[in-house]
Amino acid sequence: MHNGNKGKLKNIWFVFIILLFLGCASYYQRNLKFQQFFSQGKIEEAEKELNKNKDAAKDKNRLLYFMQKGVVLQMLGKHEESNQFFEQAYIFTEDIQKNYAAEAFSLLSNPETLPYRGEDFELVLIHYYKALNFLRMGMPEEAQVECRRINIKLNQLNDKYGNHKNRYKRDAFALNLMGIIFESSGDINSAFVSYRNAYEAYKEDYAPLFGVEPPLQLKKDLQRTAYLLGFTKELDQYEKEFGMRYLHQTPEGGELLFFWNNGLGPVKAEWSINFFIVKGAGGLVTFVNEDEGFSFPFSLKNSDDALKLKDLKAIRITVPKYSERSTYFRKAELLANNNTYPFEVAENINEIAFKTLQDRMIREFATSLLRAALKQVAEEAVRKKNEGLGALLSIANALTEKADTRNWQTLPYSISYARVPLPEGKNSIDLKCYSPHGSEIVETFEFDIKSKKTLYFMYHTMESMP
């Protein structure tokens, strides 16, 4: 071999070694210091860690940067700044266009070479944070804009998955939140419609698929708004369906809407799986894994890919999976004026994440199988011409065959809420969180309540089980 070729090979080996150390780590591992600060509740240190990466707002992970920065600033009480970053996240998701050259390159490398676009539920939850920020700043009209954006996003999801088996087609919590915001702004009709849609989504989707029943508070809100609108037929229907007799009470003072973000959502990792290739007639190729019960047929009749794959017998692919971070606190309640108000789960983000990833696994497998097969074909072609370069390409393929492990990792495990009627003026409220061992953690909050006004508050307990 010529010295020039040896030098080139040494340089290539050096590049591959660098790729080995950088490419094998998951997104969580690459941001471990930030994740540790955040999960320990050291939010100021977490923000400083985010700020160290000046280019994060420009690279392929900028959506995650915007969302995580928004969460951190919200927890620091910087609601206006927080919303600036969430707005950038929203604009990015609206403006992003497919880059076909990048898509093609990702087939030969891995999907993390593409800009992160966000999971469907992540895109909806951007507006949850934005709306709560606006409400904390006393800007209900702006919060209603976020409700309209939620509506648009949910309609897009319904259109996107109308003929498919995706389970996350509508977000019951988002619809419930819309109703709460509309009602506190005086738009009772829009509130009733949102509450009704939320109830249907909980009953038809969330209860059977994600284990979240319609909250009792939602049923009360639905009955109340039906009464206020004079919808006697609907009120009678809900009284019978819920087994709850409605007794209207004129509220005194104001109320508190307390949203409890509990724990931390799952983290994406990856797993590898072997497939045997079974050739059929007419260009049919089936990738089979008997242990997992997977079988993916591909019709390559009208493609050169059939010829390219004819000599392949088996391949190994890597796909994403979620790792759960179980909650430490199992339940919580608010104590105010000698009354107890238990929190009700409105959104199980952990369950939604797992189910939505399962729903798109067929697409993930299809893309990964094709990517791995084309890599192996290219490797064999190079190996026939140059054994050394073929070996290097084999290493390159192994290094770049990885799943997309990116996800919004500052989201909570679940979101619960409680509606608390309070007298006008200063109120002291205790939050009680219960551990698996039955012990209690108590934190006291002070709220200044205005007559006939709703005060919104969001609190995040980030403790998770080891």
Short description:
The protein is of the alpha+beta class and 466 residues long.
Secondary structure: elements and pairs:
Layout: H1 3-23, H2 27-30, H3 32-39, H4 43-51, H5 62-75, H6 79-95, H7 100-108, H8 120-136, H9 140-160, H10 172-184, H11 188-210, H12 216-228, H13 232-242, E1 254-262, E2 267-279, E3 284-289, E4 294-299, H14 305-308, E5 314-323, E6 331-336, E7 339-342, E8 344-348, H15 349-359, H16 361-385, H17 387-400, E9 414-422, E10 425-434, E11 440-449, E12 454-461
Parallel strand pairs: 1-12
Antiparallel strand pairs: 1-9, 2-3, 2-5, 3-4, 6-7, 6-10, 8-9, 10-11
Question: Can you put this structure into words, describing what you see?
Answer:
There is one protein chain. The chain is α+β, with helices and mostly antiparallel strands and 466 residues long. It has helices at 3-23, 27-30, 32-39, 43-51, 62-75, 79-95, 100-108, 120-136, 140-160, 172-184, 188-210, 216-228, 232-242, 305-308, 349-359, 361-385, 387-400, and strands spanning 254-262, 267-279, 284-289, 294-299, 314-323, 331-336, 339-342, 344-348, 414-422, 425-434, 440-449, 454-461. It is built from 17 helices and twelve strands. The chain has a four-stranded mixed β-sheet. It has a four-stranded antiparallel β-sheet with strand order 4-3-2-5, covered by helices on one side. A four-stranded antiparallel β-sheet has the order 7-6-10-11, with no helix packed on it. Helix 3 runs antiparallel to helix 4, helix 6 packs antiparallel against helix 8 (120-136) and helix 10 (172-184) packs antiparallel against helix 11 (188-210). The protein is globular, with a radius of gyration of 26 Å. It starts with a helix and ends in a 5-residue tail after the last strand.
